[in-house]
Amino acid sequence: MNTNNFELFSRELLYKRINHPTRLPVKSVTHTFIKDLLQLLFPHYTEQTYFTEEEITSKINLLKRNLKTLLLSLNNGMEKKYEEIADKYFEKLPSINKSLWEDAEAIYSGDPAAESIDEVILAYPGFLAIAIYRFAHELYELNVPILPRVFTEYAHQITGIDIHPGAKIGDSFFIDHGTGIVIGETCQIGNNVKIYQGVTLGALSVQKKLANTKRHPTIEDDVIIYSNAVILGGDTVIGKGSVIGGNTWITKSLSPNSVVYNKNEIAFKNEKDTNEYLDFCI
After folding, report:
1. What pTM does this model have?
2. Which residue from 259, 228, 253, 222 is spatially nearest to 240, judged by alpha carbons?
């Protein structure tokens, strides 16, 4: 690249920086804020022992200041309301905390391999993804731009679970294994729902003009969705108490207590039948 090209490239980079400014390295600071929230709510994550209520209150106030700094860094109309948003967010923290302990209890109760709630909180990627989603969802509800997606994409990065912060998820949410789960923005999930790895709760169409419509399914209370099931469409409702088997593809609503599964057909070859056989090479 010659000198003239370098000058043009430098000018282009400067133009982008002027038109897309931030006051902080938003991603790294956001990730630190998430870790600090986890450390506050769960002793399993903490790097500091708190001995008094005053110490915990001081930590909460510090986190509130950090959130205000993050909001200001967005340069996206937050200057006039960042203090109000931070105050409202931390007013929601007790209910977020309550929901997360209920999620942990649901995972512990529903997974025979889980030996304790402590193990769920420390070791289960599903719980971690749910926690970060619940942190992000409250920001989304407060109409905070960008940050909610940075939150949930961090969860996506470290757990392989992709939950849009706009999704509405009820109490006692159970994710087992979790890898490959996708839950879309307008998805609505009831209470006591169990979801296994590879499940997609998605849209039938991804056209931009449909951005402000309900594009993702509704999952009612007490539904179980097994691995790699795909449920699509904003008009699709999975009725209460239904069981969705693995590797199913659903684009229509189901009445309550439905059971959906694929019928497997397995062909066995007799050892004497050597004329026709399948030769797999992977």
Report:
1. 0.87
2. 222
Count how many Cα atoms sit within 13 Å of the Cα of residue 68 in the half-sphere of its side chain. 16
Q: Would you say 164 and 188 are in contact if contact means Cβ atoms under 8 Å apart?
A: no
Q: Is 174 exposed, middle or buried (0-12, 13-18, 19+ CB in 10 A)?
A: buried
> Which pLDDT score is estimated for 131?
99
Give residue 280's pLDDT band: very low, low, confident or very high (50, 70, 90).
Answer: very low
Sign (positive/negative) of CA torsion 60, 63, 67, 72?
positive
Dihedral sign from CA coordinates of 6, 27, 170, 182: positive
> How many angstroms separate the CA atoms of 214 and 44, rounded?
38
Whether residues 175 and 90 share a domain: the answer is: no
Domain of 210 in residue numbering reads as 167-261
Same domain assignment for residues 123 and 248: no
Q: Are residues 127 and 181 in the same domain?
A: no
In this predicted model, what pLDDT tens digit does every residue of 56-70 receive, in sequence order? Answer: 999 999 999 999 999
| Residue located via tokens 């005053």 | 54
Last residue of a domain, one of 130, 163, 196: 163
Q: What is the pLDDT of residues 77-131, one digit of tens each?
A: 677 799 999 999 999 999 999 999 999 999 999 999 999 999 999 999 999 999 9
**Residue 110, Cα to own-chain centre: how many angstroms?**
20
Same domain, 114 and 234: no
